[in-house]
């Protein structure tokens, strides 16, 4: 199984990327492609720019989704919504292919330093992604990242068990 995984942020110190890596490390036997969305930086989407052509980076990102069997996204929350970097990729990519996520099984993750764990962006993604071919199978929000995560793993027993359960749900959707 080819699994595309990425943190939906351009931060070089992303806590969401750490969470994504923690999850992908638990998916033995699968080919994991870990993308860095910094490799897909492009002009901010506008209708005028769209009329002059789609950037190659948008085409390349869509191709990565097309080649995947499943997707894992670590949703960074900026002011209660998507990071600008991810929103721009999403805007361009959905112009290339309305069914941007191509009905691939998805696992959505989020975390933040605060007690809500990025729940606002998770709620937004959960309501929006299905309109763009998002086939969400599992979701997990980790609150208070610095208190609940260390050395590549969730450290709080209850939260670690919840994450394991969500990973198992996602795994069952892969076969």
UniProtKB/TrEMBL annotation:
<dbReference type="Pfam" id="PF03358">
    <property type="entry name" value="FMN_red"/>
</dbReference>
<dbReference type="InterPro" id="IPR050712">
    <property type="entry name" value="NAD(P)H-dep_reductase"/>
</dbReference>
<protein>
    <submittedName>
        <fullName>NADPH-dependent FMN reductase</fullName>
    </submittedName>
</protein>
<dbReference type="GO" id="GO:0005829">
    <property type="term" value="C:cytosol"/>
</dbReference>
<dbReference type="InterPro" id="IPR005025">
    <property type="entry name" value="FMN_Rdtase-like_dom"/>
</dbReference>
<dbReference type="InterPro" id="IPR029039">
    <property type="entry name" value="Flavoprotein-like_sf"/>
</dbReference>
<dbReference type="GO" id="GO:0016491">
    <property type="term" value="F:oxidoreductase activity"/>
</dbReference>
<feature type="domain" description="NADPH-dependent FMN reductase-like">
    <location>
        <begin position="1"/>
        <end position="136"/>
    </location>
</feature>
<dbReference type="GO" id="GO:0010181">
    <property type="term" value="F:FMN binding"/>
</dbReference>
